[in-house]
Amino acid sequence: MSGTNHNGNDFQCLTCNFIGVAQDMMKHLSTTRHRKIEYIPLKEVLKCDECENDNIHLLNIIVSSSEVALLCNNCKSNEFTIDELNDKLQTKIYSLSNGNLLKNWYLYLKYQNSCCSVCGEDNKLLYINSDNGKIFCSECCKDKTSSKYISEEDPAFIYKLLGLVDPSFKKTQMKKGTNKKRMKGRKRGKFKSKNVSVDGIDTQKKLSLMQRLDQERKKTKNTNRLIETESTLSLRTFKGTKAKKENLTTPTLGKGMMPDKKSGLENPKKGGANHIFPKERTNGKKNMGSGSNSFPRRTNPLPNNGANVKGPSLSTNKNLKNNKKSSKFDSNSNVKVASFDNKFSHPNKKDGYSSSFSIKNKDLVHSNNKNIKKTNDNSNYSNNNNNNNNNNNNNNNNNNNNNNNNKNNKNNKVIRYPNSIANNKHVSDIDKQEQKACNLNHNKYLEEGEHSQNYTKVFKAVMNYKNLESYLNYISYALFLEAKLETGFLENFDILWPKNPIEEPSFVLVFKSRNNKELDQIWPEHYKKMKRLPFSKQQPIMLTAVDISNKNDYESDKNKIWYAFVKDIKDEKGQLKILLECFTWCMEPLPVSRGHNAFKILPCVPQFARILFAMSRIKNPHFIKLLLGNESFRKIRFENKLTYTQQNLNDSQKDAVQFALNNQVTVLQGPPGTGKTSTIVEIILQLITAMKQVPILVVAASNIAIDNIVEKLMNLDKKINILRIVSMSKESDYDMDHPIGKVCLHNIVKNKMSPDLYRIWKMFVDHNINGEFMQHRKKMFDEREKIIDWYVGRAQVILTTNVAAGGKELQVFKDIPYVIMDESTQSSEASTLIPLSLPGIKRFIFVGDDKQLSTFSNVPQLEVSLFERILNNGTYANPPMLNVQFRMHPKISEFSIEKIYDHALSDGVTEKDRQYLGIKYPLFFYNLFKAPEEDYINPVHSSGASNISRRNVREANEVVNVVLKLMKDKNVPKSKIGVITPYSAQRDLIAALLQKNREVNPTQKNIIQELDKEDALASSNVSSASSLGSSTMNFIDRIVVATVDAFQGHEKEFIIFSTVRSNPSGKIGFLSDKRRLNVALTRAKNGLIILGNKQTLSRSKGLWHDYMEYISKKNLIFASLKEY
């Protein structure tokens, strides 16, 4: 049988559609390096039998005594020993490199289709020499006793079957279990003939629909979960040299590292370093990725989230230290409350800033952390803690805080506020001591919302890139800067360098797997019980030189960092070996001449791992063009004949829908209140009905933006198949009682799983790993996977956050035609890459507003959203814009329309539409002249850095008065009131005051905290709920209190805006950002009440100065609430 022209034009290149016989195709592949071909008669892509790798350059046909298999180089090394592969007499290897792969393709096909010539059975076969080489099974063989047959168990069977020379095997050489291996080899092949008929019998076993779907699903998932690489190395085949210990004259400590005497860091001659890792965060939530392969995230110990940050208390008078008579304990709220006098005097007397004013709320409350329930559930929680225990705990905390404070004051003269109200001190006593904080060295602390000079002094915004490799390397470096603030380095390991770092950019790390304190920090007990290793395949790891500078300068650092991923991992004989392969965009070859102690590694947390994985899969040329920013986009404007499903769409919304259907990349500007959600819903409906495009993926950085779209889709007359995927940490907030609970994937899975297996799943979630779990875990995971794949696969619209889009759930898709990203400016460019890299995307629709805030990151490179960069680099000029706002009262929107949107925006509602009964002034500025601001020190970062937040006590009390006036005088329901402020300290203070006030909160319900945004960077760069970027929103009996940044994307009928800043110099810090002001001014529908100091805001530069002039001319500045 000829191998070269066995079936005519058998093969087709799937890259360029070239068709040819074996010899021609091999020449074509050798010259073009195209990687994917199809066997035309069976319409099957050539791919590895084991891992389904379809890179033809890596495939081999292996003919041995045990099987004939099509394997990639990696699987070949795993399936066969080196001795077996090197035995050329007994093992035949046909590959593209030796010119024999396609020539001998017929051998593989013949073996795959070998079966009984009578019944078609493919087990227990016999080769009959005397019957023209026919094959029978043991049941159909006519002469079982004949000496002329060769059993399938005989090593010569394959060679006789394929007509190859028998290498004269001895049966004694046959390995035990070879028959099973051979049977496995034939069954795993994908190239059985479709219509092989022997004596009228169809030998092809028919699969059911579910079996075929399941088979297809597995193929797709295997393809989508792997980082593509041409390397076939494994730990078994890697050959390298061990790096020697280098004599480092000046060992360098990494960020957050501590010297250790045992490691020799204090003595440079000893070399090496033993990084002291912080304890794992214990905030009551488990840091888990979605799926069983996630790995834990390590951070420094943090203060408990509460209305106030736990820290050393103020030094107190000994008589007041434990004075129970000076305080009262509220049993309902679990808050220790101090009684204060009615006067509060501030010593600063310049420019009339000395103040003496009445505090109508005598109890200024700092909420204990136990008073705040950190959750995402809007239900109210009753306090079940024992009051006596809490009293004791409070006293103990006070004692500890006093001791800590003494040390703190000696060193830094910085005062931090305690959990409970200043250890029951009189407010005037507090104020005298708090003035020390005003004189602190601001250079040692970060201003809230501002970046460290370590990151800003060398930062230059990059608008475009030369090529994809330079772009990916730059983003990787920015992720490195962020990751080193979040995760500790590992330094105790050996390195095996490759012999040829150019051709094989891989290396091996070797750790001691026993009694290794470093590994124990990232290897929790439940992992060990599950027999899971601390690292997983595909996990990115960053290798960096220990002498890397602390300047955070890309140009000087880019050649000292290597970004790699785990290719293979094995734990044996007390050693954990990890084979790492560098990503293709690494700038420098591996430094094979250097010693192992010259390097440290940085494991990536799951969010960053998803970003780096996404970066390795960016292939769409239109998206690459978008990322590089060198070419302008040609926009197609065509009027499709559409029947709009929503009758109230305006012209700008209809134009946006048409534009999105016609262009591969759409950038749609949507100012506040312009109906972005309605427009997105209309685009979805048109894609389903008119374009017949499914599935459609909708993503955003925040859950509220996604939930708004889900609710609108659920309320449509036309029923479509919607699926909401939430991260594992949020699943408890979306139970079946939630408005969108019935379309949430985790609820569907729970209902479909058997109760017993769901109980096993809960063991996994709760880290309750025992014998029962280990016995049933495989069955449980298999059942969950099948249910998830089925419901995800049949969904028409899938809605999730950016980071969750990188989970396992979406790996079931070959193609996702359309992706829509809402609130695009709030999504960091790095996290945007996750949905942008999903398979088979044809069109991507960005919806956002560059006049509003972007995400916050400690690294400036990661703050600019892709949406903003596209507009700033000029590659997407004049994007379509929604130009009619339907949210705000015209008197509230007027300034933003004029000064921020340059009259491109208009009102779609009238003053009559937004008039609220009893409200005379929709826009009201309450001038609080004698209300000094105060510094507030927050420990916010795992690196140990602190930031200066600010608060204004009088303003906070007046906010409570405004709330009471709206409730009592204007009959405004609590659910229609929102309080926003730039500073987290003010947010927490206001929340505590509202919680304590019995008119606002008569049943003394606890403060409920919600964390909304799930952007990879916004969630990773913050370690305290009291920081700006945490997106924490406090709920006090339906009244929401949040920072301006956290409230972006939300709206309320009435917004109370506490500006906080009050000083004679006109300094307003990050409040000067015009985007932050725009967000603050555009949240209210019916009424906006601003509390602030007219002089301070007027003396500032920029947009605030203009705004104060605007409201002054309108006579909207008032000195009393009586006029409201």
Automatic annotation (TrEMBL):
It catalyses: ATP + H2O = ADP + phosphate + H(+). GO terms for molecular function: DNA helicase activity; RNA helicase activity. InterPro entries: DNA2/NAM7-like, DNA2/NAM7-like_C, DNA2/NAM7_AAA_11, Helicase_ATP-bd, P-loop_NTPase, SF1_C_Upf1. Residues 645-867 form the Helicase ATP-binding domain. Keywords: ATP-binding, Helicase, Hydrolase, Nucleotide-binding. The keyword Signal does not apply. Residues 289-307 have a biased composition (Polar residues). GO terms for biological process: nuclear-transcribed mRNA catabolic process, nonsense-mediated decay. Residues 383-412 have a biased composition (Low complexity). GO terms for cellular component: cytoplasm. Residues 258-269 have a biased composition (Basic and acidic residues). SUPFAM superfamilies: P-loop containing nucleoside triphosphate hydrolases. Residues 173-193, 242-331, 362-413 are annotated as: Disordered. The keyword RNA-binding does not apply. PANTHER family: ATP-DEPENDENT RNA HELICASE ECM32-RELATED, DNA2/NAM7 HELICASE FAMILY. This is Related to Putative ATP-dependent RNA helicase ECM32. It comes from Saccharomycodes ludwigii.
